[in-house]
Amino acid sequence: MARVRQRTAQDDDLTAADYRSLGAFRYQIRRFLHFSEEAAKAEGLEPQQHQMLLAVRALDEPEGPTVGSLAEHLIIRHHSAVGLIDRLAERGLVERTRGQEDRRQVRVRLTAEGEGKLRRLSTAHREELRTSGRMLVETLGGLLSTK
Question: CATH says 17-145 is which class?
């Protein structure tokens, strides 16, 4: 959960340029997220399902990440992670296994089909960032350079 800090005298120092920079940065984030959502839908996935596939791969644990670590990574509740994993498993995109050292742990791995979908999406995202990422970096740089 994001914390909002108490108002200080520095808050009065915000300029019109600061608000423009914040607005531009938020716009660039939303623009990329919109691209990401549409790319996921084109692969037949909901955006959160794409995020789950990426988290499984990004966490890159030898036996596969636990449901708990995936929930933490995606900033969702455990039962929400279970639901996402259930839907992905029904589609043959992930598989569950029991931990070798701790059989109580449920580990998640991508199937070959899940790996393929994620590879296509990740390639598209990397290309999108190569073309539009410069604006995102520039707007962030503008925000960080203001006093």
Answer: mainly alpha
